[in-house]
């Protein structure tokens, strides 16, 4: 009896741990990747193959942490080495199977390049879901075809645990990308998993728009979104991780974000954001890095997350240069971000050096009024009386249309404070280099801001913040509430604890009603 019983244990144990993740569990394990691709080479080598080899290493590392789903960034795999733009357009592109055809590229010897096939094989071998972004070529005929009979898309591809392509999402909001096409209409992509979560996908610039984001969030009730990006960070409001955190918070979404790293263009920033519960961890490196970040993610069940993340299931693996050749130890002292055109904003310098130690004002811009109540204290070190290296603050309010680097225009509604490196407006959004010693600072004891906006289903209003460490505030650091009355919603954002390291603290709305209009100019009040 005893022996049989023991054998039972021995035999059952391996079976138990092989049981697939159960749809009843309260969480799943996700991993995101901050990746620095090889994007050019002096030799005639296949760059996509070089990146594929790195991807396989990252996948094998993720497997050690029993990851259910692994996400790679945008545009960091299938990269062409050609200088000829015509060739470049399609060189590293691949046909991407239609999910309906249930194709496993691993088993299809001839039709797919290694950059698709080997990753399918890795998903199959290691039994995990993998999301990559791959340039797609698609044969076309007829009216809306290109002269060369090819449409080229910026496409996310999802493999299931059998290496089968189960989803394909073609980026709809292109950021320039003149060599890339987009579908006539957005094709929303969602996929189900064996752990009971249905995911939606968006790529980079998509996050700024109504379509497909609101289709996923409002129409389909998706609560877990994959975000692959090659972002160009902007101050004061759209630093990669700042926006990711506030978007995930405002929509209460589990956002799994993987960023293409290149500090020279302020690109990068990855993380796992648990909606209103805040971020688990953000990877934002000011050097060329390759980092795998793994976390347990609580499922949203009947609108609720029933689990606190187990800190022991949060892992960071930092690849060395010998593991992945693009890792570089050199830290960039400068920041290379873009800066929003603040000229059409209504702004006012806040004199934090005054003895009053408070500021109360209502500032309006094109019918949007922003109420600000601030309490602060200014500290100047005596070390260097002549230094002027410290942040100033401005109240900044706006209701209008902006341009995104000339590639699209969109409506924004903004109310709050921003930082500047001197008293001029044109210095706002600039950041002191890391080696500059800032010898004075303002501690905000309290910040209360409030903005009234027309109640609308056609916007996203977010609390947006960033501190000197370039991280957004944690959810315990602020409150954000909306009160709805007679078709008007009032948004309130309050600082919860005193801080001396703020760069931006604002309510930031995307108003889709003003999209595609001309950019608001300085003299259009
Ligand atoms: C893809 O996998 C095959 C078979 O293992 C291997 O021979 C080939 O080198 C791999 N290609 C890349 C780019 O890693
Ligand atoms: C680029 O490649 C295309 C297709 O091979 C060729 O027709 C064209 O002449 C090339 N352009 C240049 C500038 O070399
Ligand atoms: C081509 O595009 C136009 C809109 O740009 C659309 O009206 C038309 O139906 C399309 N034709 C085909 C065959 O899809
Ligand atoms: C697809 O993109 C290429 C490159 O920009 C362009 O020449 C072509 O006209 C586009 N095709 C369509 C149907 O828009
Ligand atoms: C990765 O390692 C480097 C060098 O040790 C370090 O500077 C960096 O902060 C690490 N990154 C993470 C995310 O731990
Ligand atoms: C913001 O500006 C737009 C366009 O001028 C206007 O239609 C809208 O009413 C303004 N918003 C508010 C809340 O007044
Ligand atoms: C004091 O500040 C001035 C102006 O920023 C700077 O030029 C000077 O080097 C600083 N001196 C010291 C000792 O840091
Ligand atoms: C303020 O900063 C801006 C931007 O760095 C710079 O161009 C300008 O010269 C500075 N002005 C003063 C008065 O220091
Ligand atoms: C948010 O919390 C994390 C973990 O405690 C901390 O490392 C990070 O600096 C915080 N962010 C800010 C902006 O304070
Ligand atoms: C609210 O908006 C609706 C639809 O635009 C309108 O019919 C209604 O009269 C408005 N109510 C108030 C109190 O303004
Ligand atoms: C400002 O915010 C703080 C922190 O949430 C809160 O305690 C205080 O009541 C607020 N003050 C006003 C005037 O709303
Ligand atoms: C938008 O800008 C274009 C180009 O500057 C101009 O031709 C057009 O009249 C503008 N439209 C409006 C509504 O102002």
Automatic annotation (TrEMBL):
Protein origin, superkingdom: Eukaryota
Xref: Pfam families: CN_hydrolase, Vanin_C
Signal peptide (UniProt feature, chain positions): 1-25
Annotated InterPro entries: Biotinidase-like_euk (IPR012101), Biotinidase/VNN (IPR040154), C-N_Hydrolase (IPR003010), C-N_Hydrolase_sf (IPR036526), Vanin_C (IPR043957)
Keywords: Glycoprotein, Hydrolase, Signal
SUPFAM superfamilies: Carbon-nitrogen hydrolase
GO molecular function: hydrolase activity, acting on carbon-nitrogen (but not peptide) bonds, in linear amides
Domain CN hydrolase residues, every copy: 28-299
Family: Belongs to the carbon-nitrogen hydrolase superfamily. BTD/VNN family.
PANTHER family membership: BIOTINIDASE, BIOTINIDASE-RELATED
Protein name in the entry: Vanin-like protein 1
Species assigned in the record: Ceratosolen solmsi marchali
Name of the gene this protein is made from: LOC105364941
């Amino acid at each position: 009896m005893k022996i049989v019983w023991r054998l039972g244990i021995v035999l059952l144990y391996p079976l138990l741990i092989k049981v697939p993740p159960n749809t009843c569990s309260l969480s799943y394990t996700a991993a995101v990747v901050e990746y620095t691709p090889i994007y050019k080479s002096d030799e005639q080598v296949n760059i996509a193959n070089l990146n594929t080899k790195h991807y396989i290493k990252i996948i094998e590392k993720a497997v050690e942490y029993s990851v259910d789903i692994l996400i790679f960034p945008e545009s960091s795999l299938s990269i062409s080495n050609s200088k000829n733009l015509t060739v470049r357009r399609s060189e590293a592109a691949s046909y991407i199977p239609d999910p309906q055809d249930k194709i496993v590229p691993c088993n299809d010897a001839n039709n797919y390049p290694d950059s698709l096939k080997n990753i399918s094989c890795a998903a199959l071998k290691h039994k995990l879901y993998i999301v990559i972004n791959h340039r797609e070529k698609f044969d076309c005929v007829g009216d809306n075809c290109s002269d060369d009979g090819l449409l080229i898309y910026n496409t996310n591809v999802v493999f299931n645990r059998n290496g089968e392509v189960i989803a394909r999402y073609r980026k709809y909001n292109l950021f320039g990308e003149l060599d890339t096409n987009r579908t006539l209409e957005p094709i929303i992509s969602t996929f189900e998993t064996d752990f009971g979560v249905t995911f939606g996908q968006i790529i980079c610039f998509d996050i700024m728009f109504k379509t497909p984001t609101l289709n996923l969030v409002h129409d389909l009730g998706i609560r877990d979104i994959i975000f692959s990006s090659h972002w160009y960070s902007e101050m004061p409001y759209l630093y990669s991780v700042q926006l990711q955190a506030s978007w995930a918070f405002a929509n209460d979404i589990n956002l799994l974000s993987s960023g293409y790293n290149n500090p020279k263009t302020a690109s990068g920033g990855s993380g796992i954001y648990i909606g209103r519960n805040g971020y688990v961890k953000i990877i934002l490196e000011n050097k060329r890095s390759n980092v795998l970040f793994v976390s347990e993610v609580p499922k949203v069940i009947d609108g609720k997350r029933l689990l606190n993340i187990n800190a022991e299931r949060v892992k960071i693996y930092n690849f060395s240069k010998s593991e992945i050749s693009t890792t570089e130890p050199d830290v960039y002292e400068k920041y290379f971000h873009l800066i929003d055109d603040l000229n059409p904003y209504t702004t006012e310098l806040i004199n934090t050096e005054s003895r009053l130690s408070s500021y109360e004002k209502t500032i309006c811009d094109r019918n949007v009024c922003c109420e600000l109540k601030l309490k602060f204290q200014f500290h100047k070190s005596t070390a260097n009386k002549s230094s002027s290296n410290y942040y100033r603050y401005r109240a900044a309010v706006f209701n209008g249309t902006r341009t995104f680097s000339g590639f699209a225009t969109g409506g924004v509604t903004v109310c709050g404070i921003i930082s500047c490196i001197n008293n001029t407006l044109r210095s706002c959004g600039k950041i002191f280099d890391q080696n500059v010693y800032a010898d004075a600072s303002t501690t905000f004891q309290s910040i209360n801001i409030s903005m009234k906006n027309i109640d609308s289903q056609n916007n996203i209003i977010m609390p947006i913040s960033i501190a000197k460490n370039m991280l957004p505030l944690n959810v315990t650091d602020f409150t954000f509430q909306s009160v709805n009355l007679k078709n008007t919603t009032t948004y309130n954002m309050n600082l919860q604890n005193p801080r001396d390291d703020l760069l931006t603290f604002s309510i930031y709305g995307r108003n889709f009603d003003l999209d595609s209009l001309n950019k608001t100019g300085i003299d259009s009040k």
